[in-house]
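re: ur question from yesterday

yeah so i grabbed the chain u mentioned. its 142 aa long if i counted rite. heres the sequnce exactly as i have it in my notes:
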Amino acid sequence: MKWTDATGHSFTLRDACYVGNVEAVRALLEMGADPDMTDPDDDGWEWISAAGKTPTPLHCVAIAWTHVPEHVEIIRLLIERGAVVADTVLQDYWIETTLTDAAIEVGRAFGIDGEHLRNLRVQHGAVEDRYDGGKVLFVEDE
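ran it thru and got these C-alpha cells back, copy pasting raw so excuse formatting
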C-alpha cells in the first residue's frame, strides 16, 4: 500500500516512518495499513535491522539516520494503533542513536528514561550530523 503526496512522491508505511513524514503515516494508517506490519512490501528498500529484512514501522523509526521531532508523533500514532515496541526496536534505537535532542525525544517515546539518555550524552557527546560529508561531528553538552 502506498500514499502519494501533492508533489507526486509515493510512500509506503515503512519509508514514511523512516523519513519522518507524519502526513504520510497518518494517511496510510487511515487507509488501513497495519501499524505493526512485518510482511514485505514494495518500497524497494533493503532494510538492515535487528528485526531482519522486514522490520516493523517502529523499527524504521529507530534506524532512521537522522531523528526529527516528527518521529515522536509517528511513534505515538503507531502505538495508538497497536504497534508494539519490541526488544529489537530498542536494539535498533541503541545502535543508531546520536543522542541529539531529537534522538533523545525519540528514545523517550520508545519508553527509555530521558535522564539516562541525557547522562549518556554528557559522558559521550552527541553525534550532531554523522553523515555530513563523511565526517563524524560530535557536539559537547554545555
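noticed a couple things. The chain has one domain: 3-139. also Strands lie at 3-4, 10-11, 126-127, 138-139.
anyway ttyl
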